[in-house]
Design a protein that fits this description.
Helix content is 46%, strand content 10%. The protein is built from 16 helices and twelve strands. The chain has 439 residues and is α/β, with parallel strands linked by helices. Helix 11 packs across helix 12. The protein has two domains: 346 residues, TIM Barrel, CATH 3.20.20.150; 43 residues, no CATH class. The protein is globular and about 85 Å long. Strand 1 and strand 2 form a beta hairpin.
Length: 439
Amino acid sequence: MSTGFFGDLQPIQYAGPSSRDPLTYRHYNKDEIVLGKRMEDHLRLAVCYWHNFCWPGSDPFGGETFMRSWMAAGGDPMDQARLKADVAFEMFQILGMPFFTFHDRDIAPEGKTLAESNANVNAIADIFEKKMADTGIGLLWGTANMFSNRRFMSGAATNPDPDVFAYAAAQVKNAMDVTQRLNGANYVLWGGREGYETLLNTNIKQELDQLGRFLNMVVEYKHKIGFKGAILIEPKPQEPSKHQYDYDVATVYGFLKAYGLENEVKMNIEQGHAILAGHSFEHELHMARSLGIFGSVDMNRNDYQCGWDTDHFGMNVPELALAYYEILLAGGFTSGGTNFDAKLRRQSLDPVDLIQAHVGSADAIARGLKAAAEMIEDGRMKGFVDDRYAGWQKPENAEILKGGSSLETLAERVHTSDLEPQPKSGKQEYLESLANLFV
């Protein structure tokens, strides 16, 4: 039954590249075969709950601009949560995307106790379970919000108060139980305040040990309940903390190695966070695939004139092509997918704007995927890289990396042969021009 929020808007249809109707898919054709796989199965698009149904359009200098009925002051919080669920699944069906994602506090209000909060979350999960069965829409991942409430102002797992640590563990347990019940494909940990604001009051070693133990308990519980999905960490360098311990992929990998988790946890990588860390999106994706910890992505982009995480919808096709090139080289998604962790601009007030943003971004992503697939089929970009490092395939050079050499033996090799290596062009401009052929 329609909530009336989206008026008479019908499910978005694929109309092809010649369509000039902005409320049709021009490139996102879920049944199109790309590199032997349906486009829908490549991309595994997911709509997020928080930005679409929880964010009121506020910013640091102004209040809410989205006057949604389920956000009205004075309303019964659980009635509002039920209405929000109805609107959300109506939107999921209009978009025709296969997944959604949520934090526990997105879907249900916090109660006076954790038991009451958990009961609220589980009551909405009951509604989700029925709607998911009726529509076939799946849960890409669930997570717990351990950053909004003031109890978490000094972190959750890294909080100096052990009681906060215990509360966070109990909250995560329930969020994992709900994710398991809804057949979620992954469980994500986003350390909203797992970091520090000043070293004057911080013991980093203590906090890292706490975080390592917390994550080990998450992995232990995953195996105890038989959760088949991946545990994912989402790197973020700063905001709201001055420095966060999950700074970037490389930092998180070092943390995982230190606490014996490198084979248990993978990465959920966001473009906006990559930019905040001083990287490109493709850099973070490349690092994750090189280290064997690629899992999933949050799809958005930053405004490059602003110094914070602005969460625009991804519309830049050349950037997306390079991102999906890395994703395809990583073998593509298994349990992960493409989550629209993006929000409307606060001046985009109309319900149809929610639909339009996802449609436009899905088309840009589809174009990026197809361009990336053409790059792979063409083979010249990967072929150039392979050729550049081909010398390491020779037995005498491969043996160096296996430990079968020393400074002395290499010095002897250079001196006996009068070796004088000559530089070879890296051809950056050629490769950039090659990439542009496909976008």
